[in-house]
Amino acid sequence: MNTAMTREELERILDKALQDVTERTAGVRLHQGEQPLGEDLCTVHITFDKGFSTSLTLCADTSLLARMAGNSFHEETVTAEDLEEFSKEYLNVLCGKVAGAMFQATQVSAHFGTPTFYHGRYEPEGQEAQFVLTYADEHSKGAHLIHHVACPPGGQRRREGGFGMSKRVMVVDDSRLVRVQLEDVLKGTDYEVAAYCRSGEEAIEQYGVVKPDLVTMDIIMRGMDGLDAAEMILKSDPDARIVMISSLAYGDTFERAKAIGTRGFVEKPFHQEQLVKVFGQALS
Fold first, then answer.
1. Which residues are CB-contacts of 131 (< 8 A; sequence separation ≥ 6)?
2. Are 151 and 44 in contact (CB under 8 A)?
3. Contact 231, 222 (CB under 8 A)
4. Which of 65, 84, 130, 260 is most buried per CB count within 10 Å?
5. Residues 144, 136: contact at Cβ < 8 Å?
C-alpha cells in the first residue's frame, strides 16, 4: 500500500476538520478566502511525531481566537490564560479529527505531541510551509492554517502535491543489529521502520499484512535467502518496492536482484544519504 496522498486530498481533510471543529466547539463559522491577518496575532503549533512527518500551525487574529474562546467558556471576556488554554485544546481537537480522517484514507495511525502557544507569529525551525489555508469570519477577522514539512537536506525544495507522511519500511534481516542501525539512520527522514522480519519465510507471510511502502531485504539469512523471498513477494505483488541491503552487492548476485525486479541495491555498511537516495529512486 502506498500511503501517499495528494495535496488536494489533504487540503480537503484539513478544511473539513477545521470548519467542523470551529463551529461545534466555538460557535463560529469560518469561510475560505484571501484574508490578510492583522498585527495582533497568536499562534499555536503542533507536530505529528508518528505516522506523518508533518506539523500544523494556526496563526490567527487574537480577537478571533478570543471570541472563539469566549463562546466556548460562555464568557464575554477572556484572560490571557483562557486564550492560551482554549487555543491549545482547539488545535488538539482539530488534529484529532485530522488524524482520524487520515487513518480512514490511509490506514496509517498518527500520533501528535502537545500544542505550543505563542503570542505573535511563530515559524517552526527546520520546517517549511508547504501550503496555507486562509479563513475569515463574518467580522473579517482572519486565521491561517499552515501545513509544514521538514526542510529537505541541502535546501532543495520538495515536489508539490505530496505531504510529509512517513513511508513505512519493512526490514527483513536476521541481524537485530541491522534493525537498530536502520532505525537510527532513518531518524529525521521521511521513512520509519513499520515491521521487522528475521527470515525470508516471515517476510513473505507478513508482507500482505504489513503492506509496507518499501521493503529492505538482506540476502544471506537462515532458511530461505533474500533473493528467493524477494522473487516470491514480487510474484504476488509486482508493484512491491524491494531494496536489497547486503555485503554481496556485486557480480551474479547484483544481476539476479535486478533481473527479478528489485528497485535498488545498498551495500553494507550503509549511511543515511545513500539510503534515502536509493529509497527515493525505488519509490519514484
1. 7, 11, 146, 147
2. no
3. no
4. 65
5. no
| Nearest alpha-carbon partner for 230 in 185, 166, 183, 170 | 170
pTM of the model: 0.58
d(CA 185, CA 278): 14
**Alpha-carbon gap, residue 48 to 124, rounded angstroms:** 13
pLDDT at 251: 61
User: Across the 284 residues of the chain, what is the mean pLDDT of every consecutive 10-residue run?
Assistant: 62 94 94 88 90 86 96 94 96 93 80 92 85 92 90 48 66 87 81 88 91 90 90 94 80 82 86 85 83
φ/ψ of 42, rounded to 5, equals: -130, 150
> Over pLDDT 70: what percentage of the chain?
91
pLDDT in tens, 124-161: 887 888 889 999 999 989 999 999 887 655 444 444 43
C-alpha–C-alpha distance, residues 15 and 232, integer Å? 43
Grid coordinates representing 13 are: 481533510
> Which residues is 59 bridged to in the sheet?
43, 144
Quick one: which of 228, 182, 222 has its CA closest to 204? 228
